[in-house]
Amino acid sequence: MTEKELKYHIPALFGESIGGLNVKPSGCYVDATFGGGGHSCGILEKLGAGGRLYGFDQDADAERNIPDDGRFTFVRSNFRYLSNFMRYYGEREIDGLIADLGVSSHHLDDESRGFSFRFDGALDMRMNSRGGQTAADVLNSYPEERLADVFYLYGELRNSRRIARAVVEARNRKPLLTTAALLAVLTPFAGREKTRKFLAQVFQSLRIEVNGEMQALRELLLQSPGLLAPGGRLVVITYHSLEDRLVKNFMKTGNFDGLSVRDFYGNMHSPLRMTGKAVMPSEGETGDNPRARSAKLRIAEKRRAEEEM
After folding, report:
1. Predicted pLDDT at 130
2. Which of 48, 116, 276, 283 has a CB 3.0–4.6 Å from the CB of 25, allowing a cystine?
3. pLDDT score recorded for residue 246
4. What is the CA radius of gyration of the chain?
5. Which H helix or E strand runs over 74?
6. 7-11, 128-132, 147-151: range with lowest mean pLDDT
7. Measured between alpha carbons, how far is 309 from 307 in angstroms, rounded to an integer?
8. Are 120 and 178 in contact (CB under 8 A)?
9. Taking 60 as the threshold, does the pLDDT of residue 213 lie above it?
């Protein structure tokens, strides 16, 4: 892993995720969340001269990390458009797909992006800073009921309605444009012992809404079975229960509700087969990289024709 990549982001479960891809030297792979390029570099180290790797990222900052390697193609786009770009590049199937869904260290440490409550800056939170609504747009334009839904569904906050009401009352006096302005509204709702967790949940909910993260994840997962070659691997690292629930259910049953669909003979109709239980970071890794504490790695394999019988 390069020094440049370490400065941008320290990937959680790096060795386990690259190993889970089971990289073939001549295979075709996709890094759906390129970021600092850590996973891509790990894949390139295992690829041979005939291998190919595509890295997706909608953040302009990630382009600084593009490796000088003829086997690598950078795709400036959200991974929800995976199938479209694979068709564009003439790839009928891929041998592996990896997605590290966590917000990067780079984003959290850049006070101008508004992802962290540690700094006072503009309430932006866009992964793609070239367009789209910001967190300030959400806070200042959404109706109270819709704001409450965002806080409840994506932050899992039980007092979501009270928080939404306070936001609306505050913005009626003055638009909420900075993290400091938002924190002033949130402080009365934060308990003494769990303040950081509460603030993290609120900021998480806004980030997910701004970037449409849950819908993008659903679209990525739905596309993956049709793109993966038989035996191909899907590797996903999640950081909160909302993501992990979707990934686990889809890998196990082929749908997001986790409902087992079986044929007359009792065979499950799922295009993927989970390779084992979720992998968690070791104590040593979380000591070096505290942001890895909530990481969870899941791996699935595209079923082969004989398994679908």
Report:
1. 85
2. 48
3. 97
4. 20
5. strand 72-75
6. 7-11
7. 6
8. yes
9. yes
Look at residue 262 and tell me whether its pLDDT is greater than 80.
no
Place of tokens 């990934």: 247
What token pair was written down for 143? Answer: 């109706």
SS3 202: helix
Q: What's the mean per-residue pLDDT of the chain? A: 91
CB atoms within 10 A of CB 290: 10
Shortest CA distance to 62 belongs to which of 26, 112, 104?
A: 104
In this predicted structure, what is the pLDDT of residue 309?
43
Asked if residues 89 and 68 have their Cβ atoms less than 8 Å apart, the reply is: no
Dihedral Cα 99, 131, 154, 161, nearest 10 deg: 180
DSSP 240: S
Three-state DSSP at 190 gives: coil
Could you count the other beta carbons within 10 Å of the beta carbon of residue 302?
24
Spatial CB neighbours of 33, under 8 Å, sequence gap ≥ 6: 39, 56, 57, 79, 98, 99, 100, 101
Give the global pTM: 0.91
More confident residue, 48 or 120: 48
Query: Given CA atoms 42, 19, 53, 40 in this order, what sign does their dihedral have?
Result: negative
| CA–CA separation, 120 and 178 (whole Å) | 6
d(CA 229, CA 157): 40
Q: How far is CA 118 from the centre of its chain?
A: 21
Residue 99: which of 300, 305, 309 has the closest Cα?
Answer: 300
Task: List the beta bridge partners of residue 135.
Answer: none
Cβ-based neighbour number of residue 86 at 10 Å: 20
pLDDT at 229 (0 to 100)? 98
